[in-house]
Fold each of these.
Amino acid sequence: MKRSDFPEGFLFGTSTAAYQIEGAALEDGKGPSIWDDFCKIPGKIAGGDTGNVACDHYHRFESDLDIMRDLGIKNYRFSLSWPRILPYGVGAKNQKGVDFYHRLLEACHKRNIEPHVTMYHWDLPSALESRGGWTNRDTYHAFCDYADLITREFKDSVKHWMVLNEPFVFTAVGHFAGIHAPGRKGLRNFLPAAHHTTLAQAEGGRIARANAVKDAEIGTTFSCAYPTPYRDTAWNRKAVRRYDAVFNRFFLDPACGRGYPTEEMPSLKRIWKYARPGDEQKLAFDFDFIGVQNYIRDVVRFSPFQPVLWFKTIEPKKRVDRTTEMGWEIYPDSMYNLLLQFAEYPEVKKIYVTESGAAFADTLNQGRVADLERQKYLQDYMDATLRASRVSSKIQGYFVWSFMDNFEWAEGYRPRFGLVYVDYPTQERYPKDSAFMYRDFLAGQEISAEGFGD
Ligand code: FCB
């Protein structure tokens, strides 16, 4: 595979998120976020890890961007920390936080790296959480004010905006399952959080469109998982449709003007209980692109005993030999199928894969990380993206998750997703063999995982 196999203008980049890399948790006036708080609760994060220091990117962004430049990576997706900019979520801005992002953006441009900025990657200011967080409609209004502020403030240096990162994950895992911050549980938290998030998603798009430069593109990202039926029966196929409605389409369909997919998921119709008159008309926005992020294929089976969902999934460990460190199945066709599923939406104009990557047990050996499995994984997922792009010209970009190893939420620092290895005790960076493979690919060379780097 080589770069020229992809359509002309196809974007390649890499992604990170503020809480996962920045550290400097309470420095220079930053307010706490729900992740700062969640990390303090014993038992919530593997190993008791926190994002207090993370990759210390707040202090090391210049040298991190040097590495990115040296690897030839020209597109960088990262997020802004809302509580760094607005320590209380609303009100007066923290000038030092704003200045940090000006410096970061300038540092990107100086190196010819195009910034792709996510407005919200899960780190809600704690002050808003203490008033109900996303379950409170006020948070949607606060988000709009924040979106207005940042799209004005950074308009001269940002041409690519993404409103949200994976709304399904932060609402479901954070407000239904309680495994992510803020640790809320149940439908009574999930449904209002989901509705306010859907409003914020569309309104954030409208605000960005109004404030950003003319040729800016405005998008938002979605977590997508590929379901296949456990034995091909009518009930299991119905379970697959339900899975798709809730895991993939619950936020995407309303953004596209199709409303919540409650036909397949009648148990979620109660979401309307949290709506106000006129909300239905506010859920859609004509995004320039959507970001698809796929890590998972699930085998789904009908189950009348499963509350709300009526289906369950069969753990990868019980059905496949090899998974990533996260226990996720390696199944590149899930990327292919999901990309084409959403390319078929007439409302979707363009698709970028805004995250794709894998955690493996990397070892640093005399400065080298020979991560053959990741090289293979990336090639297979890039190939799936390439195949999909041959079917639909809407597919126009691929970003590797992640630029460097970082704080993987409830899993702490153990899973390493980076192209660049971070030795946390010393904060030294070591580009892995996969980073060199990506570099060579970007430079136009033919790549093959076998023995790369030897
Ligand atoms: C996605 C998140 C990202 C990262 C990857 C592994 O769900 O958007 O922050 O944690 O998973």
Amino acid sequence: MTPPRKLHIKSYGCQMNVYDAQRMVDTLQPEGFVETASAEDADLVILNTCHIREKASEKVYSELGRLRLAKDEAARGGRTMRIAVAGCVAQAEGEEIVARAPVVDIVVGPQSYHHLPDLLKRAGGGERAIATEFPADDKFGYLAKPKPETIRARGVSAFVTVQEGCDKFCTFCVVPYTRGSEMSRPVGRIVDEIRDLTENGVREITLIGQNVNAYHGEGPDGRSWTLGRLLYRLAEIPGLARIRYSTSHPNDVDDSLIAAHRDLPALMPFIHLPVQSGSDRILAAMNRKHRAIDYHKVIDRFRAARQDIAFSSDFIVGFPGETEEDFRATLALVAQIGYAAAYSFKYSPRPGTPAAEIRETVSLSEMDARLERLQALIDSQQSAFNKAAIGTVVDVLFERPARNPGQIVGRTAYLQPAHVMASPDIIGQVLPIRIDSLERYSLLGELASPAAPQNTQAAASPVIIGA
Ligand code: SAH
Ligand code: SF4
Ligand code: F3S
């Protein structure tokens, strides 16, 4: 038998890259690959890249520089190391990568991962293989399934892509060019995938998509289903304790989604709803197609449906032409909404996007200053939100042993990490925790009641396992 070949994948960027990396592993396992933690001893290294900001994108080339040394070293030892660039930089730059980095054997865009085995064969024949065709030839149809033991090893919380691509064309953003136009997976395939996951220990699913609430997949009735309708269906899957979705666009929030938050206890009351700016002038220049007031109205609809709902957002500071007054409108919006968390970024001009052509730019020092002011406000809101949990009892889904011996870590409904001293048996369970204190962003507490056995039948007839 030939020894297994070793595969190392390094992912940058968003949750979809995390999910895609797992699908690449699942696709390459039947080809005899096993995962390895270090690039140096791998036979195939895949850089799963992100193009969203210049910094993310440039990381690829410094990483390729390091890999060139590792590849040379492997060659000296008589071993062939192949290097593939996947993800959004692969899609955006394609041939350019091959020209700029001779070390690269394969370039594969996000819609072509099911071609990896074939690309590897072509690379084995001495070709530099590129696959970046758009649109996918039924990418979703060819997604490889993970093995049961692989699912178990990955833990209790999993991502599932339900939608890919974006038709919104915000003027700063590369995603419509790297992930293509919106596509939704059919309901049946999503349900099957999640059933497989829950049968193997997964308790929480985050449905992901660049614009997840634009979901319009085909239902079993042959009609197009909304995300809200899909959520009702998924809530029926046995064993699925928690459902989340990310990322949403404020313009695609329909009544079925609001109703799902009202009706489904498994749907977590925490929504990532990027607004980018609080200035209507900048929102128009960004082609967001909503004003600040429209965003407030969407937030109000969610809050009316479920009182304990909390929000996070993304912000860009220093978009071309952003004045102090525009920036203050962003601060005012944040002050008014009150976020549980938020991400903020300095504007980064991206090749091929309309905003990159605007001459009226904001200076780097001004951008830095604005970022600092915005982050201070967001931080104070996040701290207040976390502090409010102290003294209360909250449900936590336990995920894994923490770094401190004896501690187990899980997450609250709002994705706050929560630590307790407990037996690892609680991993995979949702249990009430009394929160005692806060350490940076982590909640510390104790089980509010002794960890109850998962079902009463087992408690009634004790079975000694392993005796
Ligand atoms: N809807 C997408 C957004 C992806 S990009 C999703 O699924 O997450 C994530 C965030 O990066 C955006 O919300 C935006 O705030 C930020 N971003 C995108 N392009 C950017 C750019 N050119 N410069 C700075 N930040 C950017
Ligand atoms: Fe990018 Fe805008 Fe689409 Fe989000 S909605 S992925 S920011 S173009
Ligand atoms: Fe980056 Fe592509 Fe995701 S650009 S944020 S990896 S969709």
